[in-house]
Amino acid sequence: MSDMPALPDAAAAGDPGAAADLGALAALGEPARRALYAYVTAQGRPVSRDEAAGATGMRRATAAFHLERLVEDGLLETGFARLSGRTGPGAGRTAKLYSRAHRQIDVSLPPRRYAVAGDILACAVEEAQRRSVPVGEAVTGAAERAGRQMAAGATGLAGMLASLGYEPRDAGPGETQLANCPFHELAVRHRELVCTLNLHLLRAALAELGAPAQARLDPAEGRCCVTITPDGAGTGHR
């Protein structure tokens, strides 16, 4: 029996960030919330409950309820200000104002993490220019640094793989196949480069976690080019 930790499906491991993004988008399925969100974000400035209600033809209490739900879902954020613009005695009460949240929502199915790949490749280009090293060597180094960084903040291998969108699947005793490549579109056009990135990202993450496992190239149609196997297992493609 292998000592490699068992990895559940990505659905079981869960990706809280993706789940929150999906929940936020689902909130816009409600017509009143969608109308309020569209109005608030179109203004380019904070909007009061009265203004939002008047613009969308809702009762103030109804608008307030849906605005607060949009805040809870992370789509809007709030602040307080006096609408008169005056200060001091007689300036009136402060009003609660709503504006688009700074949080960025990025949902794709299956999960994609192009920002991760973009950051690694940008760091690699900067390193190659600074040190006059081959780009491939710089990509390897940048991917390894990213892998260690991601593993350092992870609770475990399964959670890290799921949060990055790899969709880990149990493929036999101790072996884990990655059903999804989070950099798919890049891999289609630049396969060797992206597979190298994937391999060194995951090797460094495994080393940082101290997992008794190895990442190896194992390309196949319909899944990531990397497979994770227990230490000492057959090496296959490298």
Condensed summary:
This protein has 238 residues and is an alpha+beta fold.
- Looking at the structure, what is the overall shape? elongated
* Alpha-beta classification: alpha+beta
Q: What gyration radius follows from the Cα positions, in whole Å?
A: 24 Å
What is the typical, i.e. mean, pLDDT?
84
Low-confidence residue ranges: 1-14
Report on the architecture of this protein:
This protein has 238 residues and is α+β, with helices and mostly antiparallel strands. Helix content is 50%, strand content 13%. It has 10 helices and 7 strands. The strands form 2 sheets. Strands 4-5-7-6 form a 4-stranded antiparallel β-sheet. α3 (31-43) packs across α5 (60-72), α6 (114-131) packs across α7 and α7 (135-152) runs parallel beside α10. The longest helix is centred in the last third of the chain and has 19 residues, at 191-209. It starts with 9 loop residues before the first helix and ends in an 8-residue tail after the last strand. Residues 1-14 have low confidence and may be disordered.
Keywords:
238 residues, alpha+beta, 3-stranded antiparallel sheet, 10 helices, 7 strands, 50% helix, 13% strand, disordered N terminus
Chain-wise SSE layout:
Blueprint: H1 10-13, H2 16-27, H3 31-43, E1 47-48, H4 49-56, H5 60-72, E2 76-81, E3 95-100, H6 114-131, H7 135-152, H8 157-163, E4 168-170, E5 176-178, H9 184-189, H10 191-209, E6 213-217, E7 226-230
Helix pairs in contact: 3-4, 3-5, 4-5, 6-7, 7-10
